[in-house]
Amino acid sequence: MKRLLAIAIWTVASLAHASEAAPQAASSACFPAQIGDLQAQTYPPEVHNAMRQHRAGKVFGYNAPAYHTAVTVYLLDKTQAASVDQEFLGAESQIAALHPDAESAMSGPVKLPFPGQSVEGRFRLYLWTEDHDDVGSILWLGQTTNRVVKIRLSYVRPEADDQATAAMQHALAALRDVAKHICEPGQGRPAGA
Questions:
Q1: Please, which residues have CB within 8 angstroms of residue 104's CB and are 6 or more apart in sequence?
Q2: pLDDT averaged over every residue in the chain
Q3: Domains of the chain, residue spans
Q4: Which pLDDT value is given to residue 192?
Q5: d(Cα 140, Cα 165) in Å, to the nearest integer?
Q6: Burial zone of 72 (CB within 10 Å; 0-12 exposed, 13-18 middle, 19+ buried)
Q7: Mean pLDDT on 117-127
Q8: 132 HSE (CA, 13 A, CB side)
Q9: Sign of the C-alpha dihedral computed for residues 187, 16, 123 and 32 taken in this order
Q10: 144, 119 in Cβ contact below 8 A?
């Protein structure tokens, strides 16, 4: 487990360092149908309506078969959302309520490469067991000019250390790749720019 956490810390540090490189051009597609092995998921209209009514938000999701990876992105109107810290605490409370045995494996600031900008946010990796599967779950929250952005990513962690490391690397790459496509659909520009 210590080896896995050391590799995870190195991988997160690499993620943050890679994000400090030149920002991605704003021409990348907003939430495309596919990002690498991630396939866009559709939500019923009532979910979208609820998000619009709740803090003028939008929700987007992706799934990949590898490690049963699932990513959900919430874009919240900054004027109607709480601060990043308050939103983070609220999300942590939700995770604790749903998964009381969840352990925080690591946390700290992490920059993600949004289109046209690098955005720093709060990051936490949770670990728990559910239905005999070890689960890793990432929470990331940051803000752009007009949006508070929350990303939730979950994946199944294989038992073998090398496979668990590969699963975490896949999850962090998915986090980074989805971030590169976070912008306002139909506008082709970064969320909140």
A1: 124, 125, 126
A2: 83
A3: 2-20+30-185
A4: 52
A5: 20
A6: middle
A7: 96
A8: 0
A9: positive
A10: yes
Q: What is the pTM of this model?
A: 0.81
pLDDT of residue 35: 95
Is the CB of residue 66 less than 8 Å from the CB of residue 156?
no
DSSP 3-state helix, strand, coil percentages of the chain (rounded to 5)?
Answer: 35, 40, 25
Distances (CA, A) of 66 to 9, 34, 38, 170: 21, 14, 9, 8
Q: Which region holds residue 132: left if phi is over 0, alpha if psi is between -120 and 50, else beta?
A: left
Residue 129's identity, in one-letter code, is T
Give the chain's length. Answer: 193
For the domain made up of 2-20+30-185, give the CATH fold. Answer: Protein Transport Mog1p; Chain A (3.40.1000)
Q: Which amino acid type is present at position 148?
A: V
Give residue 82's identity as a one-letter amino acid code.
A
